[in-house]
């Protein structure tokens, strides 16, 4: 899956760090028949004089990607195919800035101060040098605490904050059995520690991938730096800063990451004044390894929705199975006649907001708006059903408080659609649409394929028997999803 990680021939000396190089220069690296374009590494001095390595590429609104403390290397990570694609996709319509943490990668390795304030100063220096105007910040893990603190202190400098597997208090994740075991191993044997961490992240069955990860980790930093960083980071707590964060925040987290329980992301999102939570399928701590498509979708919609970034149909390749979801507002024509155009359109906007928020939480992609509803795709049947249930519950909750009510019909099917011209086609799509047409207001109807794909999951189904759907010669077995608690 990944190209072999290798130590590059570094030409920038440690002792004589330069303050900057021409911003738009790039380096071409020939790798077999493939020409890879590596970003040029530049340097900025932090408040205490430490040299911080960074690169900046692309045009548009600035997006600063913070380092994965302590495993960051702005040059070596470009050799990881999926990671490189992740950055290239984020560059579509944006100026992406990526930097190494002090003591890591190409930044100064001898930086003595590893406090939260020092990391905070590094971020401020990079933003001042490489970005203009308010910036969007993307951070993961411990770097999330630096981002949260910066957004609270300098609200005028941060337009959006994207947090991946992050927390406000290190103690929320430092006491898990897995983390305690790994820290104890870190104190004893550096090589065995990196090998173990790599296998935890890559999966114990993938020995070759884990070997490459372990090599990458050892090239990112030193055991002395890692131990010194742990002593500092494990004491960090920025929870007091959360009420002062005024920018919108997107909290993203994979559902099945053992070291970071889902409750950590939920608690963080609930403590922020303006936030949304996106729980994605997968178990990797890296957004580019397993959850790239839904992560890009959620980020693109949150930051403004670049078509090239969030185009659902482009990400469906031949032979890939997805779950198709259709929604439809009950009797929308009659509602327009009864309420008038303006009030009826308010209901459409409420519907769209509910559906899109649910898609963001479950890693779904909006394919198109159908006038009275939305067509979407999701990476799994589980995500599709959870999304549909969330939509119905959100509509019901809204109706309890609003003067004007509406109800939604939902249909789901799973299959291998054909992607063409930013749309999805084929029998699997047609069946999902017909199931929506057959559904009563407030119902979720699914095919037998969807029901079988989620066998063993905590969903309740009612068998509606064989149903003749328009355009299908043979009757189709249909199931209703019971979503009311």
The CATH top-level class label of the largest domain: Alpha Beta
Low-confidence stretches: 1-36, 305-319
Can you identify the CATH superfamily of the largest domain?
Alpha/Beta hydrolase fold, catalytic domain
CATH architecture of the largest domain: 3-Layer(aba) Sandwich
Class based on secondary structure composition and strand pairing: alpha/beta
Terminal Cα span? 42 Å
Would you summarize the structure shown here?
With 485 residues, the chain is α/β, with parallel strands linked by helices. It has helices spanning 81-90, 116-130, 143-153, 171-174, 177-188, 190-202, 207-220, 223-233, 262-271, 292-303, 307-310, 332-339, 341-361, 381-401, 427-438, 448-453; strands at 26-31, 34-39, 42-45, 51-57, 61-65, 94-99, 135-141, 158-166, 249-254, 275-280, 322-329, 365-369, 374-378, 408-415, 418-420, 423-425, 444-447, 461-467, 476-481.
Plain-language structure description:
It is a single chain. The protein has two domains: 26-308, Rossmann fold (3-Layer(aba) Sandwich); 311-481, Nucleotide cyclase, GGDEF domain (Alpha-Beta Plaits), CATH 3.30.70.1230. The protein starts with 25 loop residues before the first strand and ends with a strand. The strands form four sheets. The chain has an eight-stranded mixed beta sheet with strand order 3-4-6-5-7-8-9-10, with helices on both faces. The chain has a seven-stranded mixed beta sheet with strand order 12-13-11-14-17-19-18. It has 16 helices and 19 strands. With 485 residues, the chain is an alpha/beta fold. The longest helix is centred in the last third of the chain and has 21 residues, at 341-361. The relative contact order is 0.08. The chain is elongated, with a radius of gyration of 24 Å.
